[in-house]
């Protein structure tokens, strides 16, 4: 990659060229983002994962731009149209849009109206007109009449010349750049319902007569309007006022006030309506879609990170219940490592209502398998089942926890589940997944396609490749941040360890099954096809609990074991002593261990790791209970204050589970007493919150909640710049009527004001 690109990326990210170059080279060598940010701090200048990933993504974009430049230069050379000036323009293009504008006049195209006009010999006439000098236009144009070429009249000749001029205008790079800016700065999204689709498209009712500026439209509304259009409920326009666009082109191309200029003006209007407007609208739609995708994916990724890093219960024996009515509640017992010990079906709810039998069976299983916690899925019959379990009088030390089961059904029907439990049906697999989610959310959720977990917005509308890459980054980041116990981890969890992947993960599982648990990290090198590079990338993130060397269960990389051994030797103790004794670690002067390769950042990490080897960065688990007696939407009353758990965060607010089988929405304007621009500044997924019920719409299954101290002090305001067209027209109508002295309208406005 060129030094120019290093400079460009460095300037954009606010870091040094040296950092960009070093990081880029590590990535090219096959190093992963987690490995670079954790174990190559001296090389990168301590760049974190966000910065490393940003360098990777921007470098990839610039390389794609370079590839396109090479292809365009080759095409121009083959056409024998490549001049030094044109080559300089192509090489100097900084964006794909600018590059394509430069290439547009030379791009092979289908037969156009301008092509046909050129075939009729009208290009010289177009050049004369476009020059806009004072000429006898009709006389000159008559010289191009040729019935054999289907130019029968002066108007035919002028029309053909205008077609050529229209294409020149459309292909003018400066004009396109100016038009692109106009569309983005002054363009307006206008959506209207397709006549006859009002009833079927009720979920898009807010957009039946809607407009707002393109540059301020939030991602969730852009995606909603596009989806409504795709599903044939809405018509969507995304342009500036036509007068503004025509005026811009006239300013750019009109040079005189004569007959020739009048012809150019006609060509301008034709070019805009027929060529430029469709082209620019397509670009705007792509640009706004890309921006909306990026914002939606960012929200999804952050939600996923919070969910994956939510507090684990840890290694405890668990009973898991997948609740139901008619088919009963599938109940399983798992040991502290998540192994299935027993499965039964109980029927404590309607219609069977076998409360006594179900209670006896649950108590027996709790006692026999030493159950320390009970996980209940939050789906159908969850609150009824929870009420049943809480009424059994079980020992107080047994935590009873409601677990979000989103995606459990996806897992239970997957190849992964069939491989794990070939002799059990979907219901047993689903219950096991619920229990394991309580024990370790990260280890269980990596088995499911992240899109199925239910923590995004419009995830099926965004660029699927970009979404997958982003979510894979998040999963890899979380897995490596926590670390993986190599002797118990599933194939799916190992797959996300830095440097591994599906095949090496499978090889580790097979080696473990054939040879028993790994005794130390060095033994991992014996896994087939796991070479030195893969070991280098993965070793620091793999843990071996109770290994002879305490460092094998820590995040200290094997390449730095020698330094820790020297620290212990200098203090006359063992590595185990260093781990146990704070006073010994306090005596270490890390500056004396600095080398050409190992600097203070790595040494500080090592010292920190010795204090808590293999520490889990996730928070400690805390049990949570929903409000008693509030089990259904019908139980809700406006003004109720209820405990809840944040299940999803979007650009317009946060969804909260309050235990009534329907999440409520805390709109952005109700997240706090102060103004909030980002919901993640206030709440996180899985956070426990207290909310107030503001509105309940049972028919539409909508619950409005608030986290304000006084949620009824004022109503949420609609975002500025966005409002229905009908509202704008009515306001204009009322204002005009008042000016004309319409007393009835004045009274109506006063009533509205003081409602």
Question: How would you describe this protein?
Answer:
The chain is an alpha+beta fold. The strands form four sheets. The protein has a five-stranded mixed β-sheet, sandwiched between helices. Strands 11-12-13-15-14 form a five-stranded mixed β-barrel. Helix 12 packs across helix 15. The model is unreliable at 728-755 (pLDDT under 50).
Cα end-to-end separation: 65 Å
Return the average pLDDT rounded to an integer.
90
CATH homologous superfamily annotation of the domain at 318-439: YqgF/RNase H-like domain
The CATH class of the domain at 318-439, by name, is Alpha Beta
Strand fraction equals 5-15%
Structural class: alpha+beta
- Cα-based radius of gyration, to the nearest Å: 33 Å
Largest sheet: 5 strands, mixed
Total of DSSP H or I helical runs spanning 4+ residues: 31
Provide key terms for this protein.
single chain; 755 residues; alpha+beta; Arc Repressor Mutant, subunit A; Nucleotidyltransferase, domain 5; OB fold (Dihydrolipoamide Acetyltransferase, E2P); five-stranded mixed beta sheet; five-stranded mixed beta barrel; 31 helices; 16 strands; globular
């Amino acid at each position: 990659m060129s030094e120019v690109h290093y400079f460009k990326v460095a300037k954009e990210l606010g870091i040094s060229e040296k950092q960009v170059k070093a990081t880029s080279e590590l990535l090219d060598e096959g190093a992963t983002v987690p490995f670079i940010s954790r174990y190559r701090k001296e090389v990168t200048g301590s760049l974190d994962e966000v910065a490393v990933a940003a360098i990777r993504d921007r470098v990839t974009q610039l390389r794609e731009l370079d590839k396109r430049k090479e292809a365009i230069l080759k095409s121009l050379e083959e056409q024998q149209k490549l001049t030094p000036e044109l080559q300089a323009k192509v090489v100097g293009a900084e964006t794909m849009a600018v590059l394509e504008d430069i290439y547009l006049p030379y791009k092979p195209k289908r037969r156009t109206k301008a092509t046909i006009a050129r075939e009729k010999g009208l290009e010289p006439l177009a050049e004369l007109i476009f020059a806009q000098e004072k000429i006898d236009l009709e006389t000159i144009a008559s010289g191009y009449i040729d019935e054999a070429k289907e130019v029968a009249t002066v108007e035919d000749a002028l029309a053909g010349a205008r077609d050529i001029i229209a294409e020149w205008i459309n292909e003018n790079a400066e004009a396109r750049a100016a038009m692109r800016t106009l569309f983005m700065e002054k363009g307006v999204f206008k959506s209207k319902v397709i006549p006859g689709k009002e009833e079927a498209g009720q979920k898009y009712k807010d957009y039946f007569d809607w407009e707002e500026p393109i540059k301020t439209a939030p991602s969730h509304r852009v995606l909603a309007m596009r989806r409504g259009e795709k599903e044939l409920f809405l018509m969507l326009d995304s342009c500036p006022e036509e007068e503004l666009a025509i005026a811009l082109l006239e300013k750019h191309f009109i040079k005189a006030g004569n007959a020739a200029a009048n012809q150019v003006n006609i060509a301008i209007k034709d070019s805009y309506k027929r060529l430029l407007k469709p082209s620019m609208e397509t670009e705007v739609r792509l640009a706004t879609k890309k921006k909306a995708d990026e914002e939606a994916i960012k929200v999804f990724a952050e939600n996923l990170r919070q969910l994956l890093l939510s507090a684990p219960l840890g290694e405890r024996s668990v009973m898991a219940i997948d609740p139901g009515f008619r088919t009963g509640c599938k109940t399983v017992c798992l040991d502290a490592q998540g192994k299935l010990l027993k499965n039964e079906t109980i029927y404590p709810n309607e219609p069977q209502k076998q409360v006594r039998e179900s209670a006896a069976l649950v108590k027996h299983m709790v006692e026999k398998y030493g159950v320390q916690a009970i996980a209940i899925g939050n789906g159908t019959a969850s609150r009824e089942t929870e009420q049943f379990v809480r009424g059994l009088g079980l020992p107080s030390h047994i935590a009873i926890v409601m677990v979000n089961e989103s995606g459990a059904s996806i897992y239970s029907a997957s190849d992964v589940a069939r491989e794990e439990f070939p002799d059990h049906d979907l219901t047993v697999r689903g219950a096991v997944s619920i229990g394991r989610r309580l024990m370790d959310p990260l280890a269980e959720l990596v088995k499911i396609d992240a899109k199925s977990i239910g923590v995004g917005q419009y995830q099926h509308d965004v660029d699927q490749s970009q979404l997958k890459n982003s979510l894979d980054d998040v999963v890899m980041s979380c897995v490596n941040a926590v670390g993986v116990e190599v002797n118990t981890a599933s194939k799916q969890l190992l797959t996300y360890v830095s440097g591994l992947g599906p095949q090496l993960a499978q090889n580790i599982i097979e080696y473990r099954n054939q040879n028993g648990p790994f005794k130390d990290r060095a033994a991992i090198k014996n896994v087939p096809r796991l070479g030195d590079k893969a070991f280098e990338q993965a070793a620091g993130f793999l843990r071996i609990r109770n290994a002879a060397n305490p460092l094998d269960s820590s995040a200290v990389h094997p390449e730095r074991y020698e330094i820790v051994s020297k620290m212990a030797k200098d203090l006359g103790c063992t590595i185990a002593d260093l781990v146990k004794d704070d006073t010994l670690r306090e005596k270490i002067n890390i500056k004396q261990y600095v080398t050409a390769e190992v600097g203070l950042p790595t040494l500080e990490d090592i010292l920190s790791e010795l204090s808590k080897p293999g520490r889990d960065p996730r928070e400690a688990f805390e049990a949570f209970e929903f409000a008693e007696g509030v089990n259904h939407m019908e139980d809700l009353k406006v003004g109720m204050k209820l405990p809840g758990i944040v299940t999803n965060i979007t650009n317009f607010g946060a969804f909260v589970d309050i235990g009534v089988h329907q999440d409520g929405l805390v709109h952005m304007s109700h997240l706090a007493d102060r103004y909030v621009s980002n919901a993640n500044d206030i709440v996180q997924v899985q956070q426990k919150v207290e909310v107030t019920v503001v509105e309940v719409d049972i028919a539409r299954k909508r619950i409005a909640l608030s986290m304000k101290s006084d949620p009824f002090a004022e109503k949420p305001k609609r975002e500025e710049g966005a409002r229905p067209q009908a509202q704008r027209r009515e306001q204009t109508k009322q204002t005009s009527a008042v000016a004309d002295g319409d007393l009835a309208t004045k009274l109506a406005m006063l009533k509205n004001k003081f409602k």
